[in-house]
Every structure is written in C-alpha cells, then in structure tokens.
Amino acid sequence: AVLAGVKMARFFCAGELTAADGAPTIGASQTGVSHIFTMYAVIETGGKQYRVAVGDRLRVESLPAAQGDSVKLDKVLLLVGGAGGGGGEGEVLVGTPHLPGGSVTATVVGHGRGDKIHVFKMRRRKNYRRSQGHRQAYTELRVTAIHRDDAKPSPMPAPAEAEAEAGAEK
Fold this sequence. Notes:
Elements (H helix, E strand, L loop, with lengths): L1 E2 L2 E2 L2 E4 L19 E4 L3 E6 L2 E6 L3 E5 L8 E4 L2 E5 L11 E3 L8 E11 L3 E7 L4 E7 L2 E11 L11 H11 L1
Antiparallel strand pairs: 1-2, 3-4, 5-6, 5-9, 7-14, 8-11, 9-10, 11-14, 12-13
C-alpha cells in the first residue's frame, strides 16, 4: 500500500506471499506470520535524496538522457535488503557516505517542467515592484532494479587511526 508516497511494510499470514504492486519481497517466517519488506534504497541525485523501491516513479533534477534510456544512479547512501539483493530480512547497509558497489537502475519516462513559481519583490513607498516566474526542469524516472554487488560499507576508522592519517597528510 502507498501512504503519503511511502511504501509501508505489509503483514500477511503464511501462504502465498506477494506484494500487490509486484515489488520483490522476502518470504514467510516459520511462525505463520510474516513481515513482508520491499527492498529499497536511499539515493542522491541533483543534490537531493530520494527513497526508492523497484517500480517507483520519481521526478529528479533534469538529467542529460533521452526518453526510454536506462540511467544508472550509483550514489547509494543506504540499502535495505530484500529478495534478489542477497540481503536478509531487514538487513540495512549504510554507506560512508556512499555504498561501494551499490547502484539503482532506472528508465527515463520523460522530461518536463514543474509548476510555475511566482517571485514578487516589493519595497513599500519606494515605487519598487519586480515580478518574476520560474519553472524548474525535471526528469521523470521509473526504477527498474536495485543492485547490490556485495555492497559492504567501508569500515569507519578508529579514532586513533583517523588522527594518525590526519597527521600523516600534514
């Protein structure tokens, strides 16, 4: 189910377990009640961060790609495991800042321009009025796959190692 643009985890009894939107899911537990998780990732593009799952459509800052082209977004910040990704139920991989080997593949659905934003400046009693409009260009993408490629976050250096590296660079 989609609630306020966010896919929510679903709870089903054991049996035939598939998500209604066809997204990849993780199988049932032995207890008869299962948590169905959709594999998702948090990506960065155009200076913004997006939470995406397979099948999602999203509008990002304009990309130089033709309609129908496949785009690889490799700035993956976070990845929650699911079927096909090799991740366990609820396995979370966090990058520092990006996950090496993690990527999201999307198809360009189209290009467009957003709603007009009116900018009006005025100084009272000075006969100063300026009006300007702006429409931001965007690219609409449909997420086709989330790739993991054994993405493991690079280990954070211990404080002593970080200080030693900082001292060596000076």
